[in-house]
Amino acid sequence: MLSLQVKQQYIHDLVDWIEANLTDDLNIESITAKSGYSRWHMQRMFKEITGQTLASYTRKRRLTIAAMALRLTRLSLIDIAVRFGFENQQNFTRVFKSHFMITPGVFRRIPELHFRGFHGRISTEHGSGVAQLITRDELHLCGEVAEWECAFGEFVPQQANIVAEHARRFVNFAGQHSSRGWLGFQYGPGQSGAEQQQISLYQALESHHQDKLTTHAVGWTAPAGLYATIHWQGTPEQINPFIAEMYYNHLPELGVARREGKDLLRLEMQQSSSEWLTGMFSIPVTRVD
Fold it and tell me: What pLDDT digit, counting tens, does each position of 166-206 carry?
């Protein structure tokens, strides 16, 4: 009989594979072939460790990623439907509306990003802390902006090193001038292709440190309002995966929608280095019924 630890590692590895293949022809048969176990045994073990069925997990994850594709790309509804394994646009619209209570077209157009129905990646490991809602005053910052595009789905697994390198350089610089620094993130559809998404990374200090910055620095304001916040620490390469965890796990639990603004990672410089970051994530949100 397999030990609990062995089962957890097996499910962890299987979930890794599922997450990497959400846009492929993914079904119970293909997952069974990958697992090395019988269909019955594999599904039984998955339910035992995760508390949900394999079919339900893959369906909810596909719908969640499809919802993000609606907001972060200019892909057509039929292209998104095909990409995430739906027979046609009509079937996609029907299943999407049944799960999220609105059609894909409405979900794409509404100003706020709603998280009701979002489903995060399963983890068999110890999770991070608990996100909280706080009301914050206006924050005046000044810094530089790095912008680039990547194919949808590449931000977490393939762009982590780019963000990490920017973070390292920023910590080495900011630590000489201030006890705090901010990394700000914005995401949206790219312009070079329908499946491209744009990443904007702001690297900033408080405005009164403007004289320490280059002539390319720009001022910007993080408006007052409600924010979902969580204390975080980790390596620079772990920034992108944690952003995904915030969106797919923490924000759905809070019953909020993301409003306009930047995601902010406030770094505590005295506790941070180029290889280890300590600070607080804040995401602008609004309460929803």
Answer: 999 999 999 999 999 999 999 999 999 999 999 999 999 99
Locate the DSSP E strands across 191-239: 196-206, 218-222, 225-234
Distance from chain centroid for Cα 25 = 23
Q: Is the pLDDT of residue 289 over 80?
A: no
Give the separation between CA 95 and CA 108, rounded to whole angstroms: 16
Provide the whole-model pTM. 0.91
Q: In terms of pLDDT, which residue wins out, 37 or 227?
A: 227
- CA distances 142 to 145, 175, 208, Å, are 10, 15, 8
Which residue in the block uniquely carries the two structure tokens 């406030």?
A: 266
- Does residue 41 come out as left (phi exceeding 0), alpha (psi in the -120 to 50 range) or beta? alpha
The pLDDT assigned to 124 comes to 53
**DSSP annotation of 212:** G
195 closest CA partner among 32, 286, 94, 76: 76
Sign of CA dihedral 16, 119, 184, 75: positive
CA distance 234 to 218: 28
Residue with tokens 């490991």: 125
Residue for token pair 């001038």: 177
Q: Look at residues 185, 169, 184 and name the one whose alpha carbon lies nearest to residue 273.
A: 169
Distance CA 178, CA 7 (A): 47
b/e 66-101 (16+ beta carbons within 10 angstroms → b): bbbbbbbbbbebeebbbbbbbeebeebbebbeebbe
Which has the closest alpha carbon to 248: 63, 124, 12, 9? 63
Listed in sequence order, the residues at least 6 apart from 52 whose beta carbon sits closer than 8 Å to its beta carbon are: 46, 122
Nearest-5° Cα angle at 109, 108 to 114: 65
